[in-house]
Amino acid sequence: MKNKILYILLACTLLISACSDLLDTEPRQSVSIDGALESPAILEALLIDVYNSFQGAGTLGSEWIVVPEVMADNFTFNNNRGTYNGEYFNRLRSHLSAWEVYGYLLKLNVVIAGANVLDENIVGEAYALRALGYLYLMNTYAYMPTAIVASQNKGGVPLITDAVLSLSDVTLPARASIDDVYAFMLSDVSNAVQRLSNSGTNARFTKAGAQALGSRIALYGGEYQLSIDYAEDAIASGVATLSSRADYVSDWAKAEHPEALWYLEYQSNESQGPNTSVMSIYITDGTVLSPSYRGNGDFTPSQEVMNLFAATDVRQGLIEEVQTANLPNTIGTPELKKYIDNGGQGNITNIPIFRISEMYLNIAEAEARLNRDLAAQTALQVLKRRSIDPLYVATNVGQALLDEILLERRLELLGEGHRLFDLKRMGSDIDKSAVDLTGEVISFTDLRILAPLPGGDLELNPNLENNFGY
Question: Could you read off the pLDDT of 122-178 as tens digits, one per residue?
């Protein structure tokens, strides 16, 4: 049994396939773990392979963008095919999947262990990617520090932090506490920020990208001043710029979104595929870049969300009604067109993961939660003057101000994979009682808020405990 566990752990590090051109690393047919800690080439190949893994359809390339939206209350299911059908109806055991991230973390642990032979930026990227991996593990399998059902809480996820290079390195840890995992993630972010610069492509983690990640983790963890500090640093870096009112819609058609502090970049040979691309899942009709494009359009914005947009909201320009007959979605169906073929052809879509707009939202919310209404109003005004009205003035205070900020967050980040996590960190029910949704209200105490741990790992590791109710 232990040999089987070792095989599972080491399989991720023994062989590395050819790496993506976008990350400017020479392809390598395979590399051995032997001597890895003394080989910058092997260690960087491991790092690049992790970047590629986060671009996959089962992670940020599709699932982690779409599922947090459709499990929540932002999108309606068009029944064009079965994609994420179970997740939309919140069926038991239909949830996000993130356990495969442990394979990525094992590679990153090796890179970090080999820090002495690496450029500081490479090590910083490894720390940032490791924090990102743990964030999605926690988003999927654990409560957040700001909202916990104490009677059902089984903790966070196992922390595996050391390089596994031999049988003696194998451990079978239990789940760490929620607070311990958040502290570990923030420590990794701090290590990343200390090592990274703001030079190079935003398709790899820069210092500003790591600061954006830190702002999100801190917000989720209730560390509001830290979230503000990281967000302000990311904005001040100049790595990305806030879209103007005039350019807001057209910026989504650019290969590198001007707001992107970190984004996934796909090459012409890296099509996300007509079945799994975010573009195809959200769109059936043509786009400004490819008028003849045809997708599946499985999920479109709910009428409830559509009713929340003000008449002057520039973001409505990203929601276009179907104009073409005989498509899976009928004429007049509103489709979200954030993710269009900005990579140069259909189903190749560069995906912003951290945007400047999110940083302003983080600042506004964190300031409001710290009862600093004026600072919260100031951050909110930046976005609403861009999105709603150049002369907009925020006047709400207290809970009304916080509610306004959260509504702005829902509209600004629509379709980007945030909604489920925002509801979860606030301890909110998932209300799908709107007429074009499922009709169900899922209580925050429902076991379906968290995903079950994989059965195979529960069998292999006797120290693991599954989530409540599974």
Answer: 999 999 999 999 999 999 999 999 999 999 999 999 999 999 887 778 889 999 999
Q: Which two tokens stand for residue 381?
A: 């005004």
Measured between alpha carbons, how far is 289 from 301 in angstroms, rounded to an integer? 21
Q: How far apart are CA 258 and CA 189, in angstroms?
A: 23
Distance CA 383, CA 245 (A): 9
Two tokens, residue 38 = 């003394």
Tokens of 301: 């914005």
Q: Measured between alpha carbons, how far apart are the two ends of the chain, in Å?
A: 24
CA distance 246 to 250: 8
pTM of the complete model: 0.94
